[in-house]
Amino acid sequence: MKKAQAWGIDLIIATMIFSIGIVVFFVYSLNSPSDVKDKFQILTYEGENIINSILSNGEPDNWNENNVQKIGILNNGKINETKLNRFYHLSENDYQKTREIFNTKYDYSFIIEGYEISYIGKEVNLNALNLIKITRFIIYKNKPATAYIYIWEE
Q1: For an engineered disulfide with 73, which of 17, 43, 83, 103 has Cβ 3.0 to 4.6 Å away?
Q2: Is residue 67 classed as helix, strand or coil in its secondary structure?
Q3: 47, 104 in Cβ contact below 8 A?
Q4: From CA 80, how far away is CA 70, in angstroms rounded?
Q5: Calpha distance 107→118 (Å, rounded)
Q6: Measured between alpha carbons, how far is 104 from 99 in angstroms, rounded to an integer?
Q7: CA 134 → CA 21, 44, 146, distances in Å?
Q8: What span, in angstroms and rounded, lies between the C-alpha atoms of 115 and 122?
Q9: Cis bond leading into 144, ω under 30°?
Q10: What gap in Å lies between CA 32 and CA 27, rounded to an integer?
C-alpha cells in the first residue's frame, strides 16, 4: 500500500506543476500582445512628434547649432536648404543632442527623396526589434517629394 500512496502523491505534484505551467503560459500569452501594441503606439507617437517638429519652422525661427530649441526645416511652408543642412550637420556632430531636442530615447532616421544626403540621424537598423516608418508628402525644390521618419528601439 505504501507504493500506491507514493505514486498518488507523485501524480498530485505532477498535476500541480502542469497546472502552474498552463497558468503561466496563458498569463504570458494574454499580456504579450498588449505589450507589442503599447510599444507600437509609443513609437508611433514619438515618430509623429519628431516629424511634426522637423516639418515646422523650428525655434528660434533662424536657429543654429548653438541656440536651437526646436529643430525645424521649413520657412513659409517650404523647405529651407540652410535649415536642412544645419539639421544634417547637427545630427552628424551631436546626434544625442538632436534626440534630446526631440525629447526621445529612441533612434531615428529622417529621409527626403531627392536630397543628396541619404539620411539624417542614424542609419536605419532594419533588424531592430521595433521599427516604425512614418511618411509625409512634401514639396522639395518645387517638386512633390516624400519624407520618411524611421524610429526604432535597439
Answers
A1: 83
A2: coil
A3: no
A4: 15
A5: 16
A6: 5
A7: 40, 8, 10
A8: 16
A9: no
A10: 9
C-alpha cell at position 127:
533588424
Specify the pTM.
Answer: 0.76
C-alpha dist (Å) from residue 146 to 113, 140, 141: 6, 9, 12
Cell 512628434 belongs to 49
Distance of alpha carbon 148 from alpha carbon 134, whole angstroms: 6
Cell numbers linked to 89: 550637420
User: Model confidence over 97-148: pLDDT tens digits?
Assistant: 999 999 999 999 999 988 888 899 999 999 998 899 999 999 898 888 999 9
Residues in the chain: 154
Helix (H) or strand (E) segment spanning residue 108:
strand 107-112
pLDDT tens digit string along 9-45?
777 888 889 899 888 887 776 666 666 678 889 999 9
Q: What is the distance between the alpha carbons of residues 22 and 77, in angstroms, rounded to a whole number? A: 57
What is the 3-state secondary structure of 40-65?
Answer: HHHHHHHHHHHHHHHCCCCECCCCCC
CA atoms within 13 A on the CB side of 58: 26
Strand partners, 134: 149
